[in-house]
Amino acid sequence: MLQQQTEETYQLPRIGSPAPDFTATTTHGEISLEDYKGKWFVLFSHPADFTPVCTTEFVAFQEIYPELRKLDVELIGLSIDSVSSHLAWVRNIEQNFNTEIEFPVIADLDRKVATRYGMIMPEESQTETSRAVFVVDDKQVVRAVIYYPLTTGRNMNEIMRLVTALKTTDQHGAPTPANWEPGDKVLVSPPKTKEKMKEREKEEGLECIDWYLCKKDLND
Length: 220
Fold this sequence. Notes:
Strand order of the largest sheet: 5-4-3-6-7
Helix content: 25-40%
Number of strands: 10
Shape: elongated
């Protein structure tokens, strides 16, 4: 029974599963999952306020926040520190880095949100959230999950690339290849019948290496 409770406590939301519900106190007041209905958002956790890696990350997250909003994507931070600590820290960042943190930061003292999202890795730390990133779409479905260890700051370019790729796939029904960047060609799903495979050979505007691996330009 104890083992079952532990597994439930730290269960990681799966890609394609509904985003765990939450209501939380933040630096912008109380927010809930319901507030983001019909919106994409990125929820990320950080280990603690007033720490070197986390501070550099918050500056970097704020730098990409305007770009995320252009994609109609919101941003939410989280740690198990208090609202007072968050407010003091974001003010410190503004003073030392001339950077105003415009997105809300959840104060998860009771660890309810962190627990529901599986953000605490007890093998790494019993008292801090890991560096987790969840991309949730406008239907409140988890679309991507990334985890980093406490010692490694996140790559903002990759987070932007990931969000853009997901939205591109939704809009055009096309998967994206390795190292894809906005503006690059996307992949075309392989044909599922022999007839479709023959039709593929005659289709114009495709760059095909073989029948199952073709690319196309979205601008064509």
